[in-house]
Design a protein that fits this description.
single chain; alpha+beta; Phosphorylase Kinase, domain 1; six-stranded antiparallel β-sheet; three-stranded antiparallel β-sheet; 9 strands; globular; disordered N terminus; disordered C terminus; binds adenine
């Protein structure tokens, strides 16, 4: 684990936290006028989540900045959305924070991935890190073609809901596992889309940090969708791969393992690890013995077998440089990657405009088709709708966040 005092804001932390607090603040403001009427003054509206303790002593959001957040996000008409507005169809992800459900919004029949988080776990785990989120970072809007979009967030008494785009193509690595390796043009395409998303985040001073196989999804057209899920896959019986292990070290940069300071260059290491696995079928420094693998990442030189082009191997060598100051991207970030010979055939502007046809289109009979989602998830029982919606519409009726994304 990286030293907490130095860890930067990460995408995973920020995305959930932004929406959570934006909504919280809105409700807080609104409540001063509305809630006493609606709920009666005896109900301690935020007591159970101890919002004051996050909003005040931590100093993340002063009342002024809270007002700014509120203003930014209420400049367009808000839709009131609650847990009860969705039919929950399948489990498509799970972890220690909660689970991800495929859901259909009743109003428009659109599919969404709904991340349901247990508040007590989120607040406990993130409380320490929260205080490092600066106001201006918190208020940033993320809008990039290869980042999952947040549509709404709302909460019930015990749970926090994030309603996200549903990436129906499944995990990139689900496909990789089936095919063992990808050919270079396909690996190049995915690496470039991931790099472009990371470069965008870095431009907002956000470090993704959690680049790992389960966070890289495909949409129905075959484009990359980076998710913000910091969910480890603990507790899923029968998932055969080593990635099921919570806190998998395969993709961790040496500086993280050494508990040293780290910066955005951890993401270029992560990209190197992803690219290595796509081209060779295994993560770099791989050993079936976990401890040995950690040792390899920290101390052993990178060994690259033949079978990958010279430019591919050169890129891997540069991204997986143990010294982060010498790693590709250390100086000019994604601009350095764009100039690398491995990407010389690629038109980056076309890539971001989604003008490059994806090398693989997931086969889907329709939005309900689950063939690209790991059965380890989909076979899990879907929580009863009454369980999902239990407290919705009572204490926090109308607790809503509506994204103001505009497509690039
Ligand atoms: N699993 C986790 N998040 C997902 C999403 N947004 N779409 C599809 N599957 C997911």
């Amino acid at each position: 684990m990286a030293r907490k005092t130095k860890s930067p804001v990460t995408y995973a932390k920020m995305k959930g936290i932004v929406s959570f607090f934006t909504a919280l603040i809105k409700e807080r403001k609104k409540c001063s006028t509305e809630c006493s009427l609606k709920l009666g003054t005896s109900i301690p509206v935020y007591n159970h989540m101890n919002s004051e303790c996050f909003l005040r002593p931590a100093g993340i959001l002063s009342d002024e900045s809270a007002a700014a957040a509120c203003f930014t996000n209420t400049s367009q008409e808000l839709q009131r959305v609650s847990a009860a507005d969705f039919n929950y169809l399948k489990v498509i992800g799970t972890g220690s924070f909660g689970r991800v459900l495929l859901a259909k919004r009743r109003e428009n029949n659109r599919h969404y991935a709904v991340k349901v988080l247990q508040k007590h776990i989120v607040l406990k785990k993130e409380a320490e890190d929260l205080i490092m989120c600066e106001r201006n970072v918190l208020l940033k809007t993320l809008n990039h073609p290869f980042l999952v979009r947040l549509h709404f967030s709302f909460q019930t008494k015990e749970k926090l809901y994030l309603v996200l785009d549903y990436a129906s193509g499944g995990e990139l690595f689900y496909h990789l596992q089936r095919e063992r390796v990808f050919r270079e043009p396909r690996a190049r395409f995915y690496a470039a889309e991931i790099a472009s998303a990371l470069g965008y985040l870095h431009s907002l001073h956000i470090v993704y940090r959690d680049l790992k196989p389960e966070n890289i999804l495909l949409d129905s057209a075959g484009h990359v969708v980076l998710t913000d899920f910091g969910l480890c896959k603990e507790g899923i019986a029968g998932r055969a791969t080593t990635r099921t292990f919570c806190g998998t070290p395969e993709y961790l940069a040496p500086e993280v393992l050494f508990q040293q300071e780290y910066d955005r260059t951890v993401d270029w290491w992560g990209l190197g690890a992803v690219l290595h696995e796509m081209l060779y079928g295994l993560p770099p420094f791989y050993s079936p013995d976990r401890m040995k693998m950690l040792g390899n990442i920290m101390y052993e030189p990178l060994v690259l077998k033949t079978g990958v082009s010279k430019s591919g191997r050169d890129l891997l060598k540069r991204l997986l440089h143990k010294d982060r100051a010498k790693r590709l991207g250390a100086k000019r970030d994604v601009a350095e990657l764009k100039c690398h010979s491995f990407f010389s055939s690629l038109q980056w502007d076309d890539l971001v405009a989604k003008k490059i046809p994806p090398p693989f289109i997931p086969s889907l009979s329709g939005p309900d088709d689950m063939t690209n989602i790991d059965p380890a998830f989909t076979k899990l029982p879907v929580p009863d709708s009454s369980d999902v919606c239990e407290e919705a519409g009572v204490t926090f009726s109308g607790f809503s966040y509506t994204s103001n994304f505009v497509s690039l």
